[in-house]
Amino acid sequence: MKKIIALALLLFVFYQTQAQVPQIRKVKINELIKIIDTTSVPLVVNFWASWCAPCIKEIPWFEKSVAAFSDQKVKLLLVSLDFADDYPKGIAAFAKKNNYTSSIVWLDETNADDFCPKIDKQWDGAIPVTLMVNKKKGYRKFYAQQLPEQRLLMELKALTAQ
């Protein structure tokens, strides 16, 4: 009986630990575009990397601000542009260490000249950048810069305005 209880406790601890590690899915650019083009809710897509200081500075603003719009079903998708060596463990560990709660995907692409213009023609490859899409409104706006918290809130209001 003691062995069964010990095993049950061990399994519980293992699954609790696993549940806290973010799952990072690998996507190609065409799959990411499909996600963006078929979303049924307002979507904020933030492109970032763990080595990008301005990216890391703005992600907490994004998570907090998007959560404030949860009643309007706004979703945040963090798209990691980290190096292949960091996928998935390095990105997941970084996200866990920083308490990121949003969905994260890793863009499995190396040619920015190919994938950047598929997101927006004005994207030159620099990060952070953000794309906001609201299919119901026909709204699509690209931001080729860091978005300070107050500006982000203003842009989220525009994204969700009736």
Characterize the structure shown.
This protein has 162 residues and is an alpha/beta fold. The chain has a single domain, classed as Glutaredoxin, CATH 3.40.30. The protein is built from six helices and six strands. The protein has helices spanning 2-20, 29-38, 53-68, 89-97, 112-119, 149-160; strands spanning 24-27, 43-48, 75-80, 103-107, 129-134, 139-143. A six-stranded mixed beta sheet has the order 1-4-3-2-5-6. Strand 5 and strand 6 (139-143) form a beta hairpin. Helix 3 crosses helix 6 (149-160). The relative contact order is 0.19. It comes from Sediminibacterium goheungense. Residues 3-158 form the Thioredoxin domain. It holds the Pfam family AhpC-TSA. This is AhpC/TSA family protein.
